[in-house]
Design brief:
The protein is an alpha/beta fold. Helix 12 packs across helix 13, helix 13 packs across helix 16 and helix 16 crosses helix 20. The longest helix is centred in the last third of the chain and has 22 residues. The chain is elongated, with a radius of gyration of 29 Å.
Length: 468
């Protein structure tokens, strides 16, 4: 990227016609420019075009400090980081200034003294966009981390308590003319919340009660989960009152959006020495598992179910198929329902079980129920119910079919000879003749029959047996 160059001295900067702008005005102007040119605003953000993005644009144009409110995995942090791209590529600062002083609006004594001493010859340095955004996680954050503290070493060196020379600045003062983001604000210590309240109200910092004040130029962003943000006592009312706008996020409204996010964030190369071809119905089952978890009575819905649940399971499913390809020499590998049996490892810990539910299930049982519900939903969309009873009747005669994630694809045709209707039903899902694709479709049909309680299933050491 070609970075613009800046004048080297204050005199050259003034002669160039450069105008000083606040960081919020900068965001405002650059957003308007992108809107006028119809440029993409937030690449990689899916499903928010008609909901979150318009509200966010309005809040930026109103020059508000923002709170992104939503459950985990709703791109809150990603949206905050995306605002960095609305900043100028490079801004001028007084060289050597700890708080990146604006050459035309200095706030520190160091910058004012240097400008008074050197005048138009004051050296100018650039502060790049990439360094003008900083993010902090609230748990464990102390006042000194984000606001500042009296520096004993500077006092020992002779600095006066009544001057800024005695201070060690925290992240917020150091981000003067930039963006500061705080994740999970309800977990922030009350003392730090009071410090933030003062910054939002007066745009200055007061450290340990000493009369050292700065007129900070900063955009402040927060994120929070509704369950904790709305809980009494978690966030002081004065701080809530001074947040300019709340941007409410949400999970994907359409499964297709969820699949797009899943593939985008998984970042898996499906080619290579052992390529993988993922059927659409397998992608949809992965995402539907997350959808089912988000409405399961056994899962704590106040916490939410992150998109990372889908992403991790999708990666595990592909990994299982690729392992089979390497061991059996199958190319390309096609994920099957039995590959989802390995997603327990990538699912554990990503759901918070509702401990107040009247039906106490283990986490594994909840995950199995979620997977069965997802298969049932997707199966009902793909396969005509006509003929399912005929397949169940064949199993009722004592037929047992055993499959598994390490069973060679070519063996499925032989095993399904005992249940011809099931083999034919698989062609309704995908008419391809490729053995790996056919094996995937067969397992989908068998798992769908089980999910609809037409046949039974037992699992042992990675082998799945379907019978009545």
């Amino acid at each position: 990227m070609n970075r613009p160059t800046l004048p080297r001295t204050l005199g050259e900067l003034v002669a160039s016609g450069w105008r000083s702008r606040s960081v919020k005005q900068e965001l405002h102007d650059n957003l308007l420019g992108k809107l006028a040119e119809r440029e993409p605003l937030f690449p990689g953000i899916v499903g928010y075009d008609d909901t979150v993005i318009p509200e966010l644009c309005n809040a930026i144009l109103a020059q508000h400090d923002l709170l992104f409110l939503g459950e985990k995995g709703q791109a809150k942090s990603r949206l905050m980081r995306a605002l960095r791209d609305l900043l100028d590529p490079l801004i001028p600062c007084v060289a050597g200034s700890e708080l990146h002083d604006d050459p035309l609006r200095p706030i520190t004594r160091f910058a004012r003294d240097r400008l008074a001493r050197e005048g138009d010859g004051t050296p100018i340095e650039g502060w790049p966009r990439e360094e003008r955004y900083v993010e902090r996680l609230a748990p464990g954050t102390k006042f000194a981390d984000v606001i500042g503290e009296i520096d004993p070493a500077r006092l020992a060196a002779g600095a006066s308590l009544s001057t800024e020379d005695a201070l060690h600045f925290g992240l917020i003062p150091r981000m003067n003319r930039g963006i500061f983001a705080m994740n999970e604000i309800p977990e922030l210590d009350d003392l730090v919340q009071v410090g933030l309240f003062n910054i939002l109200e007066e745009r200055d910092v007061q450290i340990r009660g000493y009369p050292v004040r700065f007129d900070l130029d900063i955009a402040i962003l927060f994120s929070a989960n509704p369950a904790t943000y709305n809980r009494s006592g978690k966030v002081i009312p004065q701080l809530k009152d001074r947040i300019g706008a709340i941007i409410r996020t949400h999970y994907p409204r359409d499964r297709a959006d969820g699949v797009q996010i899943m593939e985008q964030e998984a970042r898996i190369d499906l080619d290579g020495e052992f390529p993988v071809r993922v059927p659409l119905f397998m992608k949809e089952i992965c995402e539907q598992m997350t959808i089912e978890a988000r409405k399961s009575p056994y899962v704590d819905q106040a916490s939410g179910v992150s998109a990372r649940f889908s992403i991790a399971n999708y990666r595990t499913m592909i990994a299982s198929a690729r392992r089979r390809a390497a061991v059996l020499g199958e190319k390309p590998a096609v994920p099957r329902i039995s590959d989802l049996g390995h997603t327990l490892a990538s699912s554990l810990g990503k759901l918070e079980i509702d401990l107040m539910s009247s039906h106490q299930l283990s986490e594994q049982q909840v995950l199995e129920a979620v997977q069965a519900a997802a298969i049932r939903q997707v199966f009902s969309e793909y396969v005509d119910r006509h003929g399912l009873d005929e397949i169940a009747d064949v199993f009722a005669k004592g037929v047992k079919i055993e499959v598994g994630s390490m069973l060679p694809s070519v063996q499925y045709a032989e095993r399904l000879k005992r249940v011809p209707p099931a083999w034919q039903k698989a062609f309704e899902v995908n008419p391809a003749d490729d053995p790996a694709m056919r094996a995937s479709c067969v397992e989908f049909v068998l798992a769908g029959l089980y999910a609809m309680e037409k046949i039974s299933r037992t699992t042992r050491h990675g082998q799945v047996r379907f019978e009545i």
